[in-house]
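Two folds, back to back.
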Amino acid sequence: MKLKFSKQDDAVITQLEINEKVMEFEYLIFINKLIEGETLEESEYPEDITELEKKEIEQMIVRINEVISSLDEEESPLLESNLDD
């Protein structure tokens, strides 16, 4: 799984690539894939992204990985059940 970033005006746009299929970023799919054990490959950044933006994104990814890895198996079904609604 990979996050792909681009810029549109001043906004950073995120896309999610899973098994070579690129889609609009969907937070629930992203978190569910992480809970299922998917790992993040190195993200792709456009040339016009600033070093500060890149650093902030990378810090966010590190924090998300820390939270996901701290979940135990008893918490995961609760999160997965919310995706079925």
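---
second:
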Amino acid sequence: MPLDLASELESLARSKQIPLSTLVSETLSTVLFDKSVNLEYPPRSHRDGKDQAARAIIAAHGGMTVSALIDRLADAGIKRGKTWVTEARLAARG
């Protein structure tokens, strides 16, 4: 489903009661200058081909901490890092 960025930003600005121009400016600054922002959504795929299994485990155990999820994935033979698991958990929660 395509994201309507304009209406999302307007809604967020209304909920935070700040001018839309301020929100857009802050958002652009974050995206352009914060190198920790991952623009890939969902997180990129791994060459091992186990992404679907990893996402299923994360969806089934979404209430666990990130480190517990990493351990759960490792028990299933799937190696994923903290950033990937965090992003996948956020994607699973919707």
